[in-house]
Write a structure and sequence with these properties.
Layout: E1 14-20, H1 26-37, E2 42-44, E3 53-60, H2 67-71, E4 75-83, E5 85-87, E6 96-99, H3 106-114, E7 118-122, E8 131-132, E9 135-136, H4 137-142, E10 152-164, E11 168-175, H5 181-192, E12 196-206, H6 217-230, H7 234-238, E13 254-257, H8 259-266, E14 281-286, E15 291-298, E16 304-309, H9 319-323
Parallel strand pairs: 3-12, 13-14
Antiparallel strand pairs: 1-3, 2-3, 4-11, 4-12, 5-6, 7-10, 8-9, 10-11, 14-15, 15-16
């Protein structure tokens, strides 16, 4: 009896901005979107807790090669916290570890918030996805094991108080990569002397992506159902919402090169490009149409060295063929 061939889905390349719902993990959301798009390959860029909602960029196909740049990007959040109660997870899904009276006025809160602005050090939560000896910290935490964590540098670019009603506060946060909002709220609660935990969390922005481009699972499923009812291939409607894969690296300086140089780059060779930056990562494009071919880095010789290359369809002609 022959084995049934496993269907692997179609090749899709681009990025969808999912408005993740609460109550599910980021991986659950990823798998649902992957099935809706019938995509062969997909990955998300920075997990949101089940409690959290909001922007979760999902990369398809070749776009997954550039997901790290979104992981490293700045983020913006809206968070609501309850004062007076501390939990082991620093959010409302955890177990209560202390209850203390709240005796905080707005001036005291403003002074406390000021201590968290700018460059600070933060100890990651035990209920985070950071790994220790190959296992995420939250697995140790669920087993009652405490792992020593080193404080890490982060930057809080802005921290604005939007509402304060005695035992609840609402904040808007613009922060660097590696910032844990739950830990920020827990640290704030300890500084205030009453404890605190997150009750609502929404990510409103990743890098420079606009939040009005987000789609939720309900909308994506609605499009899929309409296509099936109308006999339209779902890709004709769904793929219209994909952002270009190089949108993940729009913040990088562009280095545009002629096809003859691009042919060498696609073979893994570094090339000298006039007017290129003197250091750092660059977004590599080709010709007057600025076709995106990947991300490069300026090497010690001042050349553009390929680091992540797009591979879709046939390869570009050899450098010798381009030069003829």
């Amino acid at each position: 009896m022959s084995r049934r061939r496993r269907f692997k889905g179609r090749d899709v390349h681009g990025i969808i901005l999912l408005d993740k719902p609460g109550g599910i993990t980021s991986n659950d959301a990823l798998q649902q979107v992957k099935r809706i798009y019938n995509a062969a390959k997909a990955g998300h860029t920075g997990a949101l807790d089940p409690l959290a909602t909001g922007m979760l960029p999902i990369c398809f196909g070749e776009a997954t090669k550039f997901s790290q740049f979104l992981l490293d990007a700045d983020k913006r959040y809206q968070v609501t916290a309850r004062l007076g109660v501390r939990t082991d997870t620093s959010d409302s899904e955890g177990s209560v570890v202390s209850v203390r009276p709240v005796d905080v006025n707005e001036d005291q809160l403003a002074q406390a918030l000021d201590k968290f602005r700018g460059d600070i050090m933060q100890v990651p939560s035990m209920f985070s996805a950071l790994k220790h000896q190959g296992r995420p910290l939250y697995e140790y935490a669920r087993e009652g094991i405490e792992i020593e964590r080193e404080a890490r540098p982060i930057t809080i670019y802005s921290l604005e108080l939007k509402a304060f009603s005695g035992e609840e506060i609402s904040l808007e946060v613009h922060c660097s990569k590696g910032t844990y909002i739950r830990s920020l709220i827990d640290d704030l609660g300890e500084l205030l002397g009453c404890g605190a935990h997150v009750i609502q969390l929404r990510r409103t922005q990743v890098a420079s992506y606009p939040n009005d481009k987000m789609l939720n699972l309900e909308k994506l499923n609605e499009i899929l159902d309409e296509c099936r009812e109308q006999g339209i291939p779902p890709r004709e409607r769904l793929d219209q919402y994909l952002l270009p894969m190089d949108s993940a690296v729009y913040s990088l300086p562009e280095v545009n090169m002629p096809p003859v140089l691009a042919a060498y780059v696609t073979q893994g060779q570094a090339v000298m490009v006039p007017h290129a930056p003197i250091e750092g990562f660059v977004r590599m494009t080709v010709g007057p149409e600025a076709e995106f071919i990947g991300v490069g880095e300026i090497d010690d010789d001042g050349k553009v060295a390929p680091r992540r290359l797009v591979r879709i369809g046939g390869d570009m002609p050899d450098a010798e063929e381009q030069a003829e």
